């Protein structure tokens, strides 16, 4: 694919004309989602060369796997069921922002028919990545994780025969990409054990424990996982929506992550989760918690216990309520995990959230980004009045280390279509 030598949001139409899409679904996915990705790359100060590189990657590699358009199958990735989500990461002491993509492969590149449950689609996508010669890409952990967490052919038949209600646990695999401005594209994989739990009768804890154990020779996180596991059992945090992720890099350098969710969206729960039930202590933990609560105060999410409906929010009258989510990042040889919190802002007024983010950034020294943030987010959604919308920003994730400082990512509804518009 060839791209014009310069790029800005108004040239998206001319850019599209240079792309050769073999079917209408691919073209529609590009036209519905590409404009937001273009704007994220521009507002994050990527060079023209990098913009072209990452847009070509999205159009040529990701879009063919998004499935039919309009959608046939809803993804667990987003509240609306959209199978792709863009986000931007900002670091207090870091370099330029990093744009990221997460998506669920819903059909193989050779066709547009969506196939539910099929891990073979994910494996086909993994093979596609292997052929790209991405620097540092390593898929060696796939087979071990997939064997433990994904349903096999026999289990797939059982699920289909018994017509199990899989509405919100159907997703088995997601892929994530970080567009590191001065480095290679980094790849992450997310594996969801919900279907395996339903068909096998095993709990998510059993499946994840077995996975970490089987990975031990390649990524030895036994000690740190034991600490995490004790807290998760003690707090009754394992549930059918627990999931697992890893980096597609050399196993010794790989991070393993366990993701949880809770209906407790309270300061007390944030403090408990952040410190792993008081197991994590020290100045860095204390400083991170202080910043986290500062962010929480700025965005003004109600402190409350939530009533969660396990369903997609894809109409104006569906439930907007979204749970708190978090993960624990584990590395080989590191006895302590790193906590990342995902504050659920889907359902909160978009202007209120944007103002809160901007003020928080300015307050912690990220002044330039903070001052420009309101204009940036309005440019992503020019057809919407942020004062009247409440689902365009999905999550704010937060982590902290002494080296990087505050590490914050903002996740957006990633289509120009607005399914909630009345």
UniProtKB/TrEMBL annotation:
Pfam families (UniProt xref): Trp_DMAT (PF11991)
UniProt-listed InterPro entries: ABBA (IPR033964), ABBA_DMATS-like (IPR012148), ABBA_NscD-like (IPR017795)
Keywords: Transferase
Molecular function terms, GO-annotated: transferase activity, transferring alkyl or aryl (other than methyl) groups
One of the GO biological process terms: alkaloid metabolic process
Residues binding L-tryptophan: 85
Binding-site residues for dimethylallyl diphosphate, renumbered to this chain: 100, 188, 190, 255, 257, 259, 342, 407, 411
Family to which this protein belongs: Belongs to the tryptophan dimethylallyltransferase family.
PANTHER family per UniProt: INDOLE PRENYLTRANSFERASE TDIB-RELATED, PRENYLTRANSFERASE ASQH2-RELATED
Protein name: Putative tryptophan dimethylallyltransferase
Organism expressing this protein natively: Aspergillus pseudotamarii
Lineage: Eukaryota, Fungi, Dikarya, Ascomycota, Pezizomycotina
